[in-house]
Amino acid sequence: MAFHYPNGRLYQPTNKKQVEDKQTKKINHRSLKNNSSVIYGNRGMTLEQAINESNNYYLAVKRAVIHKKPIPIQIVDVSYPKRSAAVIKEAYFKKASTTDYNGIYKGKYIDFEAKETKNKTSFPLSNFHSHQIEHMKACRDLGGICFTIVRFSSTDELFILPFNLLLKYWNEKDFARKSIPKKEIEKVGVKLKNSISPPIQYLDGIDLLYNL
Amino acid sequence: MAFHYPNGRLYQPTNKKQVEDKQTKKINHRSLKNNSSVIYGNRGMTLEQAINESNNYYLAVKRAVIHKKPIPIQIVDVSYPKRSAAVIKEAYFKKASTTDYNGIYKGKYIDFEAKETKNKTSFPLSNFHSHQIEHMKACRDLGGICFTIVRFSSTDELFILPFNLLLKYWNEKDFARKSIPKKEIEKVGVKLKNSISPPIQYLDGIDLLYNL
Question: For this protein, what reaction is catalysed (chains A, B) (predicted)?
Fold first, then answer.
């Protein structure tokens, strides 16, 4: 089946045009020009797709309401053609001041990022910028549950990295190492199993980690 | 001082070009082509600006972490000029499946919309679409605090409309009235005072309404 954009242009998947970046990347629409590496354990989904589908599942079974936030953009020019949808003609990506996902689970405020790395033995802190750390710290201080879903793409392993562990390494990064050892994430975090429905059962990991 | 967009074009405020719409409207960037009516009690700010500034204040004093979500858009075409920021060349506004604001306050998940009406005696339910009602219902059922900040622009009055009152009228709208009487909002909700800092002290209203 062919899909068309509101302007009538044919939709063409862009995978073939995409180029891989070198080390690690954030999995969101900003990486349009990068290749989103595929989670083979999850029927060809990217990490973002797998999390979104998990969130849809959790919403459908009324277990949690968690959404990915839209990409922040700065709109510069919009045209309003007659009898047709408004078209954004010029806009720019803005740096996110918060994390990608938030919502509610068991009455708790949930706030997290999803990241993946091609590194085999550690997770680079360069995956975060200071605004995101500050945001998660502020949420944690008010009683929120903050974490990162980390994927090691070389082994297709998924972990929940609790915010407190991330913060410990973040605070030390200027005079110590600039990445979190995978062994530490295995010890302090929770390893997630791939499953069918939802693709990533991360709330089970949250139950375990935070005694919910 | 002159501001320039990343492409070098001069920033020009668009107020003068804007046209007022007839009855009510949602205050967000979608209303770029509409005039955002000004809250005179709030030093010329729109409702959205006043809420955003209040959220910045609450964040600064560590009372709450609440953000407006970015406008959901569907990106169709992006160009990546060399040595310059990526430019979105074609994109469309998408219908929001959630509300505009969410975050954490006193350990609770907070979720709300901001709307204004030029009506004098009632608040039209046409300000909402069913996805937003479903979203707030799901959040409430999981223990979240959901509400709408309603502004009656003719009198510059602000109220917190609790979700339960909205839902009551929403459920009856197909065989009864299609708006909520202002008197009912005054009785069941909380009237908010304009102030200097934050411009809208809506968390005080939340404390009162939900015994926090």
Answer: Endonucleolytic cleavage at a junction such as a reciprocal single-stranded crossover between two homologous DNA duplexes (Holliday junction)
> Which long-range contacts link B30-39 to residues 24+ away (Cβ below 8 Å)?
B30/B71, B30/B93, B32/A75, B32/A78, B33/A78, B33/A80, B33/A86, B37/B116, B37/B118, B37/B153, B39/B151, B39/B156, B39/B194, B39/B199
**B87 falls within a domain:** no
Reported confidence tier of residue A2, pLDDT bands at 50, 70, 90: low
Tell whether A8 is covered by a domain. no
Number of domains, chain A: 1
Report the alpha-carbon distance of residue A133 to residue A141 in Å, rounded.
12
Q: Inspect the interface and report whether the beta carbons of B144 and A64 lie closer than 8 Å.
A: no
DSSP for A2-49, please give it: --B-TTSPBP---GGG-B--SSEEE-SGGGGGB----BGGGTTB-HHH
Q: Are A93 and B22 spatial neighbours (Cβ–Cβ below 8 Å)?
A: no
Task: Give me the CATH number covering residue A40.
Answer: 3.40.1350.10
- Torsional class of A211: left (φ above 0), alpha (ψ -120 to 50), beta (otherwise): left
Q: How do residues A60-83 score in pLDDT, each as one tens digit?
A: 999 999 999 999 999 999 999 888
Residue A76 lies in a domain: no
Closest alpha carbon within chain B to A86: B92
**Set of chain B residues whose Cβ sits within 8 Å of the Cβ of A206:** none
Residue B36 structural domain: 21-70+97-210
Lookup: tokens for A158: 């998924």
Q: Which amino acid is at A11?
A: Y
pLDDT digits (tens, 9 = 90+) for A160-182: 999 999 999 999 999 999 999 99
Pairwise CA distance, residues B23 & B125, whole Å? 12
Neighbouring-strand partners of residue B162 = B147
Whether A113 has a binding-site annotation, put simply, is yes
Closest residue in A to B107 (Cα) is: A143
Judge whether A98 is annotated as a binding position. Answer: yes
Yes or no: say if B145 and B210 are a contact pair by the CB < 8 Å rule. yes
Report the C-alpha gap between B98 and B188 in whole angstroms.
24
ipTM of the complex: 0.81
Q: Provide the strand spans (E) within B82-137.
A: 87-93, 101-105, 108-117, 122-124
- Asked whether residue B151 is assigned to any structural domain, the reply reads yes
Let me know: does B186 contact B175? Beta carbons within 8 Å: no
